[in-house]
Amino acid sequence: MQTRRTTGCVWARVPPIDFEDQGPTTKNWKELVFRSAIRLYTIDLDDMALEAAPRHTNQSVYNGLFAAQRDQFKQRIQRRRKRIERWSDEFDMGSYVKEEPDIQKMRENYSEEFFSKFSYAFTNYENGDWAKAVHELEQTRFFNMVEDGPSAALLSFIRMYNGEAPPDWQGYHVVEEL
């Protein structure tokens, strides 16, 4: 599957854990998750583009004494089914994001020009050409009149190093504390 990078991500690498001497306690599993190389993705969404669905308080499928509880139970089962479906190996998040109507609606305000500029900026950030990255990130930061979080976060990180990638830069930074 070919994907186009439209948003930012951050690499985090920590040395792996040796579980030979330790049993799989809850603490150890959390450490395993946090000490793995992780690529975090962001997605630009305008949550104000959606209208709140009206609440139907008296529109129960059921009648009788426990109608509200039955509706709540049915909704809980539906949420659980969706959660299980999304955790399955066959689930494709890329397709879901492209096809989900609410996500499409929230992404309408982001143009191809914005995605192209941010992609170029992020590629330069990863490659250590931070001067070019800063130039593009400054353009994408307020591209849609509202501050873009990923652009602002990358600019903040770059400014911590006075705009120059460290000599040992590998395209990601290590998160020391979680």
Mean pLDDT: 76
Strand arrangement across the biggest beta sheet? 1-2
- Specify the number of helices: 7
Task: Please indicate the percent range of residues in DSSP E strands (runs of 2 or more).
Answer: under 5%
Helix content: 40-55%
Structure description:
The chain is mainly alpha-helical and 178 residues long. The chain has a domain at 9-46 and 107-160. 47% of the residues lie in helices and 4% in strands. The chain has seven helices and two strands, in the order E-H-E-H-H-H-H-H-H. It has helices spanning 26-34, 67-87, 93-99, 101-106, 112-127, 130-141, 149-160, and strands at 9-12, 38-41. It has a two-stranded antiparallel sheet with strand order 1-2. The longest helix is centred in the middle third of the chain and has 21 residues, at 67-87. It is elongated, with a radius of gyration of 22 Å. Mean pLDDT is 76; it is low at 1-24.
Provide the descriptors you would attach to this structure in a database record.
single chain, mainly alpha, disordered N terminus, 2 strands, elongated, two-stranded antiparallel ribbon, 7 helices, 178 residues, 47% helix
